[in-house]
Amino acid sequence: MASSDVKPKSISHAKKWSEEIENLYRFQQAGYRDEIEYKQVKQVSMVDRWPETGYVKKLQRRDNTFYYYNKQRECDDKEVHKVKIYAY
């Protein structure tokens, strides 16, 4: 994905929880579609992750404040359907 302005081709909603959905939930809480958009906007090559779980640890919002996340799952089952999955 060499383009600096990648747009998603389609969107679907999550049906059940997975590790991928957990990380998407964290990116979307911070105001981004996913890791691709976060890296584009913030011009970073890596995202801080918990080494034990691989979940996102810290994200910087567009207003430059930070979101810090726990090692454990934060996306409750009742929130899963709100997570959007973008296809490129």
Structural write-up:
The protein has 88 residues and is of the alpha+beta class. 26% of the residues lie in helices and 20% in strands. Strands 2-3-4 form a three-stranded antiparallel sheet, covered by helices on one side. It is globular and about 30 Å long.
Spatial arrangement of strands, main beta sheet: 2-3-4
**N-to-C SSE series?**
EHHEEEHE
Shape: globular
Structural category is: alpha+beta
Helical amount: 25-40%
Stretches where pLDDT is under 50 for at least 5 consecutive residues are none
In percent, how much strand structure appears in the residues?
A: 15-25%
Average pLDDT rating:
94
> Quick one: how many beta strands?
5
Gyration radius, to the nearest Å?
13 Å
DSSP summary: helix tally: 3
Largest sheet: 3 strands, antiparallel
Determine the N-to-C terminus distance: 10 Å
Q: Which oligomerization state do the chains in this entry correspond to?
A: single chain
